[in-house]
Amino acid sequence: SAISDPHVALWDSREPREYAGETPYREARGGHVPTAVGLHFATLMGADGRLLPEPELRALLSAHGLGPNQHVIAYCTGGVRSGFAYAVLRHLGYDSAANYDGSMWQWSADPSRPLESATP
C-alpha cells in the first residue's frame, strides 16, 4: 500500500547497480520497489567516513524527495544498510521513519510483488 500512498516515500539505500537490477547478494529478483528513490546510504557520509553536516544531509534527502513530513520507509537487501539510513532519519527528526527489515530478500521472494529495473 505504501507504493501508492502520496504521504509515503520509499528509500532504496542500496548501491545504484542494485537499484538498477543487479543482484550481488542473491535476491530472488532484481530491481527496486516501484516509486522508490535510489540513494546509496554511503552518500550520507563524507570522505572521512563521518556523517555529512546536518544541513547537507537535509538538503541531500530533500533533493531526493525524502522530506521530513513524509513517512519514509528505508530498505536495502536485508535491513542493515537501511537500518543505518533509518537511524540517520531519526537523528534528523523524521519521526515516522521506518526500516523495512525484510527488505529485498523478503520483497523479491514473492513473485506477486512488483519490481522495476531502471537507472537511479
Task: Please provide a written account of the structure.
- The chain is an alpha/beta fold and 120 residues long.
- The chain has helices at residues 16-20, 54-63, 80-91, 103-107; strands spanning 8-12, 37-38, 71-75, 98-99.
- Helix 1 links the parallel strand 1 (8-12) and strand 2.
- It starts with 7 loop residues before the first strand and ends in a 13-residue tail after the last helix.
Largest sheet: 4 strands, parallel
Low-confidence stretches: none
* Strand residue percentage: 5-15%
Helix proportion: 25-40%
Strand order of the largest sheet: 2-1-3-4
- Using the CA coordinates, give the radius of gyration: 13 Å
**Tally of helical runs:** 4
Termini separation comes to 22 Å
Overall geometry comes to globular
Q: Give the oligomeric state.
A: single chain
Keywords:
120 residues, alpha/beta, four-stranded parallel β-sheet, 12% strand
